[in-house]
């Protein structure tokens, strides 16, 4: 593990710098098992052999994680419904303009 000094306090303005010489930005996990949990990791990952990684936040309790995953599932379903509605409305918009165009062609050719 890399040597550095930094505070575990999330409110600290200190950005740790590790043996590779790069600052380690504060990041947030997006994998289901640690969703939303903040951590410091090498700023050059995955392009360097520096493997420094340290959690800033404590692990969430299982009930909180399960609730978060349920919320993610619900939001993904809502997003899919919204995208389907957007596709439907786009189709209606195109169909309306095609109908207007056809009406205008028929009206102007008489």
Question: How would you portray this structure in words?
Answer:
This protein has 110 residues and is mainly alpha-helical. Strands 1-2-3 form a three-stranded antiparallel beta sheet, with no helix packed on it. It is elongated, with a radius of gyration of 26 Å. Helix content is 43%, strand content 9%. The protein has one helix at residues 62-108, and strands spanning 26-28, 38-41, 53-55.
Compact description:
This protein has 110 residues and is mainly α. The chain is 43% helix and 9% strand.
| Helix proportion | 40-55%
Q: For the largest beta sheet, what order do the strands appear in spatially? A: 1-2-3
Gyration radius, in Å: 26 Å
Name the shape in a single word.
elongated
Sheet of most strands: 3 strands, antiparallel
* DSSP strand tally: 3
Oligomer: single chain
Uncertain stretches: 1-11
**Secondary structure category:** mainly alpha
Secondary structure elements and pairings:
Elements: E1 26-28, E2 38-41, E3 53-55, H1 62-108
Antiparallel strand pairs: 1-2, 2-3
Record keyword descriptors for this entry.
43% helix; elongated; single chain; disordered N terminus
